Structures are given as structure tokens and as C-alpha cells.
Amino acid sequence: MRLRQLFFPLLALGLAANTVSCHKVDDDRTPYAPVYIPFTTAGDWDVYGVSGAMLSNSFIKSQRLPKGYPYTDLSQTGFGGVLLVSTYQSEPRAYDLSCPVECRRDILVSIDGDVAVCHTCGSTYDVFNVGAPLSGPAAQHHYGLTRYNVGNGANGVFRVITN
């Protein structure tokens, strides 16, 4: 009997805690679009990748960015493009370039110092760490950049793919 008296109040408390969780970052606002950016040689990674701390490069297939990257028919660059960065610890990370506040293919974030900035809504993001919103409407609503997987491909060379 005692267990039954405790069950419903604990269940209600647990449900309330889940619905009030205000520190969770929503990184799924950007519409789904596939990503496939292979680096087939170590040389490709050295030229187009991010082989050192705090480096970045943007990949937008329709605009052939970065210039000279060997896109193929299988290459895909997400909803607004892909922002490839290297963290403070030289670990590669990838995010969609589309601002999650605006959710449009043509409104993209860009690197400004050590943050990514949306010049339309003014939001800033900590891309050299985890992609979390730092300021602006994105921080107010807890909208983070959509993150993509960066993994090892053939011969230890990286590739960026959809989660």
C-alpha cells in the first residue's frame, strides 16, 4: 500500500521534470538533408579539411565551395551547406551552415573570430566546442546548430556524413 501511495507523486514529479528541462539544446530545427563529404586522400584532408586547432572551411556543393574541392555525384552538403571546424583540441566537428532560428537555405552562419554568427538574427554559436548557442534568439530558445558526424573513412582519412 505504501508503494502505491508514493508511485503517483513520483511519476508526476518525473514527468514535470522532463517537460521543464530548459537547458536542453534543440539541434534538430534545420530540415533534414543528407551529407556526404569524403576526403579520399590525406592530401585532400590537408588542403580542404581542418588539420589544426581553430581552423574552419565551408562546403556548399551548389556553389562549388571550397573552390577546387573534388565533388562527385554522390557528394551532399546538407540543408544550407556544411561548416567543418577543428576544436581547441584539434578534433574535427561539422555543423549545418543554416541558422536554426531562420531555418532557410540562404541564411547561413559564418565564422567571426572564435564563434559562428548569423548576421540576420544576430545569434552566435560556440562551434569550436559543441555548437551550442551563445547569444541572440538562438540562446533564448536553446536552438543549436545541426551537427553532423565526422568519422574515419578509408586509410584513416576523414569523411563527413549525416547523423
Give the arrangement of secondary structure elements.
Elements: H1 2-20, E1 35-38, H2 42-48, E2 56-59, E3 76-77, E4 82-86, E5 92-96, E6 109-112, E7 115-118, E8 124-126, E9 132-135, H3 136-141, E10 147-152, E11 158-161
Antiparallel strand pairs: 1-3, 1-11, 2-4, 4-5, 5-10, 6-7, 7-8, 8-9, 10-11
Describe this structure in a few short sentences.
The protein has 163 residues and is an alpha+beta fold.
User: What CATH first level would be assigned?
Assistant: Mainly Beta
Biggest β-sheet: strands ordered side by side in the sheet: 2-4-5-10-11-1-3
Work out the count of structural domains: 1
DSSP strand content: 25-35%
* N→C terminal distance: 47 Å
CATH architecture: 3-layer Sandwich
Calculate Rg over CA atoms.
19 Å
State the low-pLDDT regions, or none: 1-21
Largest sheet: 7 strands, antiparallel
Q: What is the CATH third-level topology name? A: Rieske Iron-sulfur Protein
SSE string, helices as H and strands as E = HEHEEEEEEEEHEE
Multimerization status? single chain
- Put simply, the count of helices is 3
Mean of residue pLDDT values: 85
Shape: globular
- Structural class designation: alpha+beta
**CATH H-level superfamily title:** Rieske [2Fe-2S] iron-sulphur domain
